Each structure stands twice: as structure tokens, then as C-alpha cells.
């Protein structure tokens, strides 16, 4: 038995040593021991390469605006570990996490003694979330974000009300496959028999794979630019505005506070799913709730402006698609600024293309290391870069503070890369920038 939150958290993190073990056998075993809590939850399942967290947030925010209590399971965390299991955007308490760890620990120990082996960190947290929403905090609906892939992801024991696939990119190729089609097949594994699926996938080959899986499962499919589409998009100083055409409705001038053209597609996907829940009679979500929820939706670390003067932006662009979206926004919004980019990444990513895109967008680019098992060394990233103005940095904390202190009015600082790095950098910078404002 754990007696403190710290002990429980250390035990969970220690399971990172087991790495990633795709497959549902361990989850099914634990769920059986717990009385199958996953069957007692109404849920929406969200997968894809990029945009999962934002789409979860848009949908959650609309359901909240409609008066529902909404649980979410997301990963990784940005500000605190507990946020991975949240209710109406509020992370579970330390005491609740301690309670959950004490429920799952005996099962993990028992599994260790079997031939299938002990559960990974992600499997432990997923099991905690199912138990929590079924037995400790019952909510109206839970939105589960896929951790990796889909077909063999720990969350895929769900039988959801709807499945959502945001997009497909070449990420985690060492596990999911080297082509868009192979990765799409893994993502499409969350499609269930006779269960509607909503997707913003645009790659033709990947979309064909998803359509085939939907057809085989007799699952109604709703596709971006077919059953629903975005138009009249305009960027705002702090967000986007767009119109949405669905099969049943034309919604004009929908406003979101998240920045980026790609966020209009994530929002459209969430609206289409919300309208489906509405039409099925499961929930009542008015147009006003949709509008209010979209505007209120906030997801940390996604092109987030931490400070306007000096201009400091943080963005968890951790793969090629994410970097492309970031570079697009920088070129569109800040063409005349002196852009300094600070980048950290995991070593198992396709770094060449990511860094090449950043090189073109940055007036100056700095590479940093951070404390994580798979983190790339700053010097390794530096060697890949072709920028004429580049450097590798040993201590990112002191470096960022020095750079912020030396910024001119036309300068902007963009901190990007691995979400694990963003989860370290954001609270550190937020505290510094807050104290900086107070001292002025």
C-alpha cells in the first residue's frame, strides 16, 4: 500500500522502464479483475496523429457548456501529472490518484508473475481512468484520447458512442509502420461495429484505409470536406473564426480561441461529433452551447502565447505535421518579426525534415537537451541543422531567461518540440514571466 502521493507517482513513473508494449491482453486481464468498469461508461474515443488533445478539449467544452459533467483521459500532461484524468478540465486530486494507485498496484504485481508480464506506465494510468470514472466519480460522458496508434492501444477496450480520427502523419513509424496507409490501418483500429466515425484525414491513401475499415464494420463515416466542411476562415489576433457546413446545418462565424488554421479542422470535427450525439438523443447540445464551448476551449502548450511583451510563444510541435502547422502560422502572422526558435525533441522522431522546416522559419535557432529517457542531445540536433545562425545549449533554463531579458520589441521567442519538454518548460517560464510583470 502506498501512503503518500509521492510514493504512488514514483511507482507509476518507474513503470516507464517497461517501455511500450502494444496489445490489449494485460488491459483485458485487469478490467476483468475490476469487474469491467469500461462497460459502465458512456464515452467518445479520439485517435489520430496530431490534434487529438485539441479535439478532445473542443468536444469537452461544448458538452460542458450544454450542462454536462465531462471526464477526460489525455496524454501526456503539460502542467501536472494528475491532469491526465480530469473532470470538466479539473485534474483529479492527489488523494484520488493515491487511492487509484492502491487499487491497481496489487493487479500489476499479480500480472508481473504471469507469462504476459506486468503493465506499462500507460496501461496502469488507463486502468486507473476506467476505474475512476466507473466507481469513484461518475460523469455524464468521458472522452478518451488514444495514447499510441489505436488498434493495440490500451484505451481500445472501449465500446464508445462515437470514434474520432483527427489526421494521419508519419509519426511513431518504428511501431506503427512507415507509410500513411500502414499508420492509418493502426489508427482505424478504434472503429467499432455499427459505431459512427468522424475524421479529418486528408491524405488520400490513408483516408481509403479508414473508409475500408468503416465499411467492413458497417460504421457510418463523416469526413472533412465531404460530409462536413470549413469555409470563410479568418485569423484573429487570439484565435480563428470560420463557418461550418454539415449535412444538416450551416453554422456561420464560429469562433475559437486556439490559434492555427489546423485548429479550425479540429473544432469542426468536434462540432460534427457533438451534433451526432445530439441527433442520437444521447445528449442535448444547442447551437449556443456549441458556440460558447468552442470559444472557451483552452488546451495548454498549443501555439500558446505566454507573454505579449516580450512576445513568447510555446507550441508542442513534436512531429513533422506539427512543425508544418507551426511554421505556417509563424509565416502568416509574424512575417516581419525576428523569430528565435528553441527546439528540443525525442531521438526517435524523424528529425531531418522537422529541423529543415524550422531552419527556414527561424532567424536564429537554438537546440536544447532535457531530462527524459529518449531525449535527443542538443549537439545531435545541431549537426542536422543547416541554419547559418544556430547553437546548442547545455542549460535550457538559464538560457531561456537570458534570451528573454535581451529581447527587443521586434523579437519573438518560440519554444517548441517534444510535449515532454513543453511540460517542463511551460511552468518554469510561466512563473518567471509572471514575476517579471510583477517587478515592472
Q: Treating each run of at least 4 consecutive H or I residues as one helix, how many helices?
A: 15
The count of strands amounts to 17
The CATH homologous superfamily of the largest domain: Mur-like, catalytic domain
Distance between the termini: 49 Å
> Within the CATH hierarchy, at the fold level, what is the topology of the largest domain?
UDP-N-acetylmuramoyl-L-alanine:D-glutamate ligase
Low-confidence stretches: none
CATH architecture of the largest domain: 3-Layer(aba) Sandwich
Radius of gyration: 21 Å
> Mean of residue pLDDT?
93
- Give the overall shape: globular
Helical amount: 40-55%
- Supply the number of structural domains: 2
Strand proportion: 15-25%
CATH class categorisation of the largest domain:
Alpha Beta
The chain-level structural class is alpha/beta
Keywords:
UDP-N-acetylmuramoyl-L-alanine:D-glutamate ligase, 8-stranded mixed β-sheet, alpha/beta, globular, 440 residues
Amino acid at each position: 500500500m502506498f501512503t503518500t502521493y509521492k510514493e504512488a507517482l514514483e511507482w507509476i513513473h518507474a513503470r516507464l522502464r517497461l517501455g511500450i508494449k502494444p496489445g490489449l491482453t494485460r488491459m483485458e486481464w485487469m478490467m476483468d479483475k475490476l469487474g469491467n468498469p469500461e462497460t459502465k461508461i458512456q464515452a467518445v474515443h479520439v485517435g489520430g496523429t496530431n490534434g487529438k488533445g485539441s479535439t478532445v478539449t473542443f468536444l469537452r467544452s461544448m458538452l460542458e457548456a450544454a450542462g454536462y459533467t465531462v471526464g477526460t483521459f489525455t496524454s501526456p500532461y503539460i502542467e501536472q501529472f494528475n491532469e491526465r484524468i480530469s473532470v470538466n478540465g479539473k485534474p483529479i486530486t492527489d488523494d484520488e490518484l493515491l487511492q487509484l494507485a492502491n487499487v491497481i498496484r496489487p493487479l500489476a504485481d499479480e500480472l508481473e508473475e504471469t507469462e504476459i508480464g506486468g503493465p506499462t506506465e500507460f496501461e496502469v494510468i488507463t486502468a486507473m481512468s476506467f476505474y475512476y470514472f466507473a466507481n469513484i466519480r461518475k460523469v455524464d460522458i468521458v472522452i478518451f484520447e488514444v495514447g499510441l496508434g489505436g488498434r493495440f492501444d490500451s484505451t481500445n477496450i472501449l465500446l464508445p458512442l462515437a470514434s474520432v480520427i483527427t489526421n494521419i502523419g508519419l509519426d511513431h513509424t518504428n511501431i506503427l509502420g512507415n507509410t500513411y496507409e500502414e499508420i492509418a490501418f493502426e489508427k482505424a483500429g478504434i472503429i467499432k461495429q455499427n459505431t459512427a466515425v468522424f475524421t479529418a484525414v486528408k491524405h488520400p491513401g490513408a483516408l481509403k484505409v479508414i473508409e475500408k475499415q468503416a465499411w467492413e464494420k458497417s460504421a457510418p463515416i463523416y469526413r472533412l470536406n465531404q460530409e462536413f466542411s470549413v469555409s470563410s476562415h479568418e485569423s484573429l489576433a487570439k484565435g480563428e473564426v470560420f463557418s461550418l457546413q454539415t449535412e444538416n446545418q450551416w453554422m456561420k462565424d464560429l469562433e475559437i480561441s486556439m490559434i492555427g488554421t489546423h485548429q479550425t479542422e479540429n473544432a469542426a470535427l468536434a462540432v460534427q461529433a457533438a451534433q451526432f450525439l445530439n441527433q442520437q438523443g444521447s445528449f442535448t447540445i444547442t447551437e449556443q452551447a456549441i458556440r460558447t464551448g468552442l470559444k472557451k476551449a483552452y488546451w495548454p502548450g498549443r501555439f500558446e502565447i505566454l507573454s505579449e511583451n516580450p512576445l513568447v510563444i510555446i507550441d508542442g510541435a513534436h512531429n513533422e505535421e506539427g512543425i508544418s502547422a507551426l511554421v505556417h502560422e509563424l509565416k502568416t502572422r509574424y512575417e516581419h518579426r525576428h523569430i528565435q526558435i528553441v527546439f528540443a525533441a525525442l531521438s526517435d522522431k524523424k528529425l531531418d525534415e522537422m529541423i529543415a522546416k524550422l531552419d527556414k522559419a527561424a532567424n536564429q535557432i537554438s537546440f536544447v537537451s532535457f531530462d527524459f529517457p529518449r531525449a535527443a542531445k542538443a549537439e545531435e540536433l545541431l549537426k542536422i541543422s543547416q541554419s547559418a545562425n544556430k547553437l546548442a545549449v547545455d542549460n535550457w533554463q538559464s538560457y531561456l531567461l537570458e534570451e528573454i531579458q535581451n529581447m527587443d520589441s521586434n523579437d519573438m521567442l518560440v519554444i517548441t518540440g517534444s510535449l515532454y519538454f513543453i511540460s517542463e518548460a511551460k511552468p518554469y517560464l510561466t512563473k518567471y514571466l509572471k514575476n517579471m510583470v510583477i517587478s515592472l
